[in-house]
């Protein structure tokens, strides 16, 4: 895999696996040395961590992303007196695939081993080295080796040939030094102990990488896979373009298939839609890499013959399909993921981990996610929505901003109908129009889960109470970014006895678990709008219609969002309807505004919590 990706992967992997508090463990030292030797990049990392109690033992379950040149230099344990009590042997080190939910196969691997001891405190130490022949990045380093854990010492040292051309991006405070001797330039960054590096995990906060102090070093020029430079996004994009230039040729058989599918269609947008569906139905995503550090795609004819590829290969293949019918399209490099990570826009460099396709038409541009077999035409999902990305076009590469969710295409509409029984349970029917961030997830559930797994998914989703799902369906709407979910089931414990009253428990639609105002550290970031509209109907025909009460209606409107809840009692049928609408627009608010955002969210939650329907007397 690309060296840059590995450094990002290592950093995020380690940070995301640290969930203990600082007193359970400390990073005693974290030292990284990087050097260019005979044109190769060599990186050595030394880590020492003190484990203070059993809650931090899992820090000794070490996993290090690697390539074939990676080696573990040494690893051991010291007791509280500094005496070595265990030394890792070669047979103790294993290799396994590093997979996630987005891949069928993966060629990303980790070395793994365990460093554990029974007497606290103890210190684990390990060192590893990685070498790369091809690289577009020298270092992506943060002194925060883990989040939620104290750092006592961290340093980065970089050795380069004296006249090596490079550029540096820095964020944070460091003790820096630089010297030139023996034909080498040595630069170092040491952790400034005045910084607090315990990175708290907070709801509605920036991406982890955007919170970290950071040093990135890249060469000014790249000289493999063709010459290029990273002085501007245009020049860097031209180099990326050169890596795939000439690889968009289909096999003769595939060309005939393309024309059979499209020659009778006059409209180019419709041609593109047909070819996109053809690509989805006839290929599958597999994470593969070849050549040029993982940036160069497999040729289109390879995908024609093998019917699989990674994001680069499938995007290049889709581009070739469109080219065959004279529809121009362009690769777009993007940093994808469940959270939105900012691009450092004034530091042109390899900051991306995914590729999609842009297809400009007369009135708009269509964006195609080529690794999903299920997403609709021109739909990206929260995996890539709203990001800055690199449009790769020869002579015209540039940063663009991908489309974002709007309050309309993020709107979820849920109708819940409860028919209460005299045994205080209820039959339930649900009609849920799914849009926004849930859409891609539910598509995956529809297409990859069996019936029992789907029922279990919705039961665990805890949309309402404790539900036993009897039947359900997930249906697509043609040419739409919405799904229709229908569910039938039985609900237990919907009513609780409070003295002489029977109270229908409110549904907890929205629970954010926000930090107290005094404990909040980071700005508020709402990456995608939240727009929910619920209609809840309680059929109370088994109860006396003259003895029904419900909470008063409430309306809240602030800059951070709006909320409304109203009730109506249909006495002829003895039904109570509750209408509830919540809208939280996307936005970025400084920490000084957290109190206002916090108060809005808590007010909404308190109103929901107290949205009771009370039955005073039964028949």
UniProtKB/TrEMBL annotation:
- What are the record keywords, sorted? Signal
Classification via SUPFAM superfamilies? Cysteine proteinases
| DUF3857 domain residues | 38-192
Superkingdom assignment: Bacteria
Q: Where does the record locate the signal sequence feature?
A: 1-22
Q: Which Pfam families does the protein's record reference? A: DUF3857 (PF12969)
Query: Would you tell me the protein name for this molecule?
Result: DUF3857 and transglutaminase domain-containing protein
């Amino acid at each position: 895999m690309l060296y840059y990706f590995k450094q990002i992967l290592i950093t995020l992997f380690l940070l995301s696996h640290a969930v203990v508090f600082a007193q359970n463990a400390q990073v005693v030292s974290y030292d990284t040395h990087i050097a260019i030797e005979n044109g190769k990049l060599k990186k050595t990392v030394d880590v020492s961590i003190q484990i203070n109690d059993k809650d931090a033992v899992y820090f000794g379950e070490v996993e290090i992303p690697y390539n074939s040149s990676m080696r573990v230099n040494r690893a051991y344990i010291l007791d509280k007196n500094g005496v070595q009590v265990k030394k890792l042997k070669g047979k103790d080190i294993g290799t396994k695939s590093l997979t996630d939910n987005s891949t069928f196969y993966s060629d990303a691997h980790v070395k793994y081993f365990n460093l554990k001891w029974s007497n606290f405190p103890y210190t684990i130490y390990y060192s590893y080295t990685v070498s790369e022949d091809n690289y577009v990045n020298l270092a992506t380093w943060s002194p925060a080796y883990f989040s939620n854990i104290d750092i006592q010492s961290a340093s980065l040292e970089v050795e380069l040939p004296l006249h090596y051309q490079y550029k540096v991006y820095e964020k944070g405070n460091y003790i820096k030094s630089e010297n030139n001797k023996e034909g080498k330039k040595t630069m170092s960054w040491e952790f400034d102990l005045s910084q607090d590096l315990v990175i708290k995990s907070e709801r509605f906060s920036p991406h982890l990488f955007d919170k970290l102090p950071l040093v990135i070093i890249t060469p000014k020029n790249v000289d493999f896979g063709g010459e290029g430079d990273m002085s501007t996004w245009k020049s860097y994009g031209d180099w990326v373009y050169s890596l795939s230039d000439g690889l968009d040729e289909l096999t003769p058989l595939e060309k005939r298939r393309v024309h059979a599918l499209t020659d009778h269609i006059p409209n180019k947008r419709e041609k593109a839609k047909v070819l996109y569906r053809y690509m989805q139905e006839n290929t599958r995503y597999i994470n593969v890499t070849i050549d040029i550090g993982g940036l160069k795609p497999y040729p289109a004819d390879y995908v024609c013959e093998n019917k699989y590829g990674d994001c680069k290969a499938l995007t290049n293949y889709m581009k070739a399909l469109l080219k065959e019918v004279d529809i121009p399209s362009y690769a777009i490099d993007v940093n994808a993921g469940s959270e939105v990570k900012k691009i450092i826009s004034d530091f042109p460099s390899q900051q991306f981990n995914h590729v999609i396709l842009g297809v400009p038409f007369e009135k708009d541009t269509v964006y195609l996610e080529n690794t999903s077999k299920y997403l609709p035409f021109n739909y990206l999902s929260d995996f890539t929505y709203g990001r800055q990305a690199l449009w790769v076009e020869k002579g015209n590469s540039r940063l663009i901003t991908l489309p974002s969710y709007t309050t309309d295409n993020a709107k979820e509409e849920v109708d819940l109908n409860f028919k209460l029984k005299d045994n205080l349970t209820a039959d339930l029917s649900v009609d849920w129009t799914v849009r926004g961030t849930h859409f891609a997830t539910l598509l995956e559930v529809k297409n990859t889960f069996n019936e029992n797994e789907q029922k279990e998914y919705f039961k665990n989703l805890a949309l309402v109470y404790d539900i036993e799902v009897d039947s359900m369906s997930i249906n697509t709407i043609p040419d739409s970014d919405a799904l229709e979910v229908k569910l039938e089931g039985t609900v237990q414990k919907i009513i609780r006895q409070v003295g002489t009253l029977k109270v229908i428990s409110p549904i907890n639609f929205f629970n954010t678990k926000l930090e107290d105002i005094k404990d909040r550290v980071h700005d508020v970031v709402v990456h995608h709008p939240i727009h929910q509209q619920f209609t809840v109907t309680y059929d109370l025909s088994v109860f006396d219609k003259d003895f029904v009460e419900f909470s008063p209606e409430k309306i809240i409107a602030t800059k951070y969002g709006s909320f409304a809840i109203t009730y109506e009692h249909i006495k002829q049928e003895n039904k109570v309807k509750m209408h509830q609408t919540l809208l939280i627009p996307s936005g970025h608010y400084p920490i000084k505004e957290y109190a206002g955002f916090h108060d809005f969210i808590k007010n909404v939650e308190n109103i929901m919590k107290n949205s009771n329907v009370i039955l005073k007397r039964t028949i």
